[in-house]
Amino acid sequence: MRLVAWWALISSSCAPVLLVVGFTTATLLEEPGYNPVTQTISVLAAGNHRGYLVLTATLVAVGSSYVATAWGLHAAKPAGRLCLAGGGVAAILLTVFPAPRSGGSLSHGAVVGVGFTLLAVWPVLATRRGRRAPWGLRPVPSVAVSALMWAGAAWFLVEVEMDGAAGVAERVVTSVQAAWPVVVVASCLWHARRRARPRPAVTGPGTP
């Protein structure tokens, strides 16, 4: 079986691009009362916001990209692929449970928590050991990027408690989570190409 389907590079690359373009466009469409520094992306998916349709389409597209990438990433362990796909489903579900304009929402918070956790642990659960494993699926970079995501989550929670730059923290963390599948897929494709190269023949002494 191939390490990764060729189209997984397209699906994985779409996620970070669509995410950034989507939340940027939705922010530009929003009324002046919305503050992207302190307010989260999910607020824009509420039905009473101008950026509702844009961000709703963005969440569906990004979530679908995660699911497609998980399907094509054959080299990753099944548990990791399942978590990546689950994170995509959670992103889509956020359109059903958007954050309210003010106050909190238990259902929204639950979906966000589950989605973040799945996207933060999938790199570790997808790892393969040994030199034959693609770089993006090796334990060291996988654990490092997972730790970075959890650090970003801690930063986000601190900003929420302090009424600070929670919107900035969320945008940074979600962008990192969207970009990592691209790195993994690219490393798998590069690894497969390198493995397919013909090895030079070994000649003995006296061979012309």
TrEMBL record:
<feature type="transmembrane region" description="Helical">
    <location>
        <begin position="106"/>
        <end position="125"/>
    </location>
</feature>
<feature type="transmembrane region" description="Helical">
    <location>
        <begin position="82"/>
        <end position="100"/>
    </location>
</feature>
<dbReference type="Pfam" id="PF06197">
    <property type="entry name" value="DUF998"/>
</dbReference>
<protein>
    <submittedName>
        <fullName>Putative integral membrane protein</fullName>
    </submittedName>
</protein>
<keyword id="KW-0812">Transmembrane</keyword>
<keyword id="KW-0472">Membrane</keyword>
<dbReference type="InterPro" id="IPR009339">
    <property type="entry name" value="DUF998"/>
</dbReference>
<feature type="transmembrane region" description="Helical">
    <location>
        <begin position="52"/>
        <end position="73"/>
    </location>
</feature>
<feature type="transmembrane region" description="Helical">
    <location>
        <begin position="172"/>
        <end position="190"/>
    </location>
</feature>
<keyword id="KW-1133">Transmembrane helix</keyword>
<feature type="transmembrane region" description="Helical">
    <location>
        <begin position="137"/>
        <end position="157"/>
    </location>
</feature>
